[in-house]
Specification:
Blueprint lengths: L1 H54 L4 H32 L5 H14 L6 H23 L2 H31 L10 H27 L7 H11 L8 H18 L6 H21 L3 H22 L9 H18 L6 H21 L6 H13 L4 E2 L9 E2 L9
Antiparallel strand pairs: 1-2
Helix pairs in contact: 1-2, 2-3, 3-4, 4-5, 5-6, 6-8, 7-8, 8-9, 8-10, 9-10, 11-12, 12-13
């Protein structure tokens, strides 16, 4: 009788568990639909407040307060959807791959809360809005999509700027005990710029095509060049060049959230990576490609950043750049007259300038210096002393053309 009783009890437990699991799977879709309705109501209310806030000129503070309140309620509804619906569907093994990935990303964002609260604050909003944007775009409701897109672009623009500003503060902060190289901050900056260019700038450019004022026309060419890197497998040279394009675009889009001093550090990081790539590459053809990329990066750094620099902490560096800039402008005059001579003199200018800057670096660039000197010999700017070739000794010719 004892054995029979145990078997019956066990059977009852198993039966109850099966019923519970079945009910959970049945109730989960109901929960999803309830949350979906709630999100829709909160979203519509928020969009309405957003439109009033952007259109109405009088009593701006009241409309802003209403927009903030409805936006907060909208985020709470989305957060509840993730915890009540997506979590339960994943737990009951009824979730789609999209929902599984969404929950994984959600916990990734939550993990930032304890140590990186500012980033967490922006990232969580960004995640929840992106999650709902998928639902809106898949709804097929054109009017809803059109209204939501205006909010989505404006809010995401603000969130990305907040994230980049937070990284900029960390990169400029010398009081904290971060890794001295701050590699992880550079990585986050470039990844965030990449996300923005692909997800938000692409939408802005699409809308810009149908507008009259063409606000982003000067960025379009850079964006198209960037898009070319999305095709095929990328090597280290491609990644450096891709990040160079990201920085170039950022100088037009994020002048406040990614200030010049921070952008300069990012350029210096890319220059170091590019120099190392040139001196470490063994295959001649690949090395030449890396060298050409480095020349483009040096030009980008000087034109898009240093030429816009107003305040210089070091007067010697300022005077050195003025001298460089005057030479560069003189050489540029040759572009339409003698293109081959223009390219030659420009490269010589870049090499000499970079060699001076490398002297101030602690890193060992001796192999690159030797490669640079070989280039100068090939251009007839330096004369090689034959008896000391193995030691890398070179001598300047007595006469050098202006700008060479």
């Amino acid at each position: 009788m004892e054995e029979t009783s145990l078997k019956i009890t066990g059977a009852n437990k198993s039966f109850i568990n099966k019923i519970t699991n079945t009910l959970s799977k049945i109730l989960t879709p109901t929960k999803v639909s309830i949350n979906g309705m709630l999100i829709s109501v909160k979203r519509n209310s928020m969009i309405k407040a957003f439109e009033h806030y952007n259109v109405e000129e009088e009593d701006k503070e009241t409309y802003e307060k209403k927009y903030d309140e409805t936006y907060e309620a909208y985020l709470e509804a989305l957060d509840k959807y993730v915890m009540d619906s997506v979590y339960k569907k994943v737990k009951n093994n009824t979730a789609s791959e999209f929902e599984k990935n969404a929950l994984s990303k959600y916990y990734g964002v939550i993990s930032l809360k304890e140590n990186e609260y500012v980033e967490y604050k922006f990232r969580k909003q960004k995640f929840l809005i992106e999650l709902d944007n998928e639902n809106v775009q898949n709804s097929g409701k054109e009017k809803v999509i059109e209204k939501y897109n205006k909010f989505y672009i404006q809010k995401m623009d603000w969130l990305y700027k907040g994230i980049l500003k937070n990284y900029s503060i960390k990169l400029a902060d010398t009081s904290q005990t971060y890794d001295t190289t701050k590699e992880w901050i550079y990585l986050k900056i470039f990844n965030t710029l990449k996300e923005y260019i692909e997800n938000i700038l692409s939408l802005k450019l699409k809308n810009d095509e149908n507008s009259e004022n063409k606000k982003y026309e000067d960025i379009r060419k850079d964006y198209e060049n960037y898009e070319a890197f999305e095709v095929g497998k990328l090597d280290q040279r491609d990644y450096i060049e891709k990040n160079m394009l990201l920085l170039g675009i950022s100088r037009k889009l994020f002048t406040h959230s990614l200030p010049l001093t921070v952008a300069e550090q990012c350029y210096m990081k890319l220059l170091k990576d590019a120099r190392c790539l040139v001196q470490d590459t063994k295959i001649a053809t690949k090395r030449e490609k890396a060298y050409n990329m480095l020349m483009n990066l040096i030009e980008d750094y000087n034109i898009k950043l240093l030429s816009t620099k107003v305040y210089w902490e070091n007067s010697e560096q300022r005077d050195a750049f003025k001298k460089f800039w005057n030479q560069y402008q003189e050489i540029t005059k040759l572009k339409d007259i003698n293109f081959i001579e223009y390219v030659k003199q420009k490269e010589v200018l870049f090499i000499r300038d970079d060699m001076k800057k490398m002297e101030q670096e602690k890193f060992d660039y001796s192999k690159l210096v030797k490669y640079y000197k070989r280039k100068l010999v090939d251009y007839g700017v330096l004369r090689e002393i034959q008896s000391y070739v193995s030691k890398g000794n070179y001598k300047k010719p007595k006469k050098v053309e202006v700008g060479a």
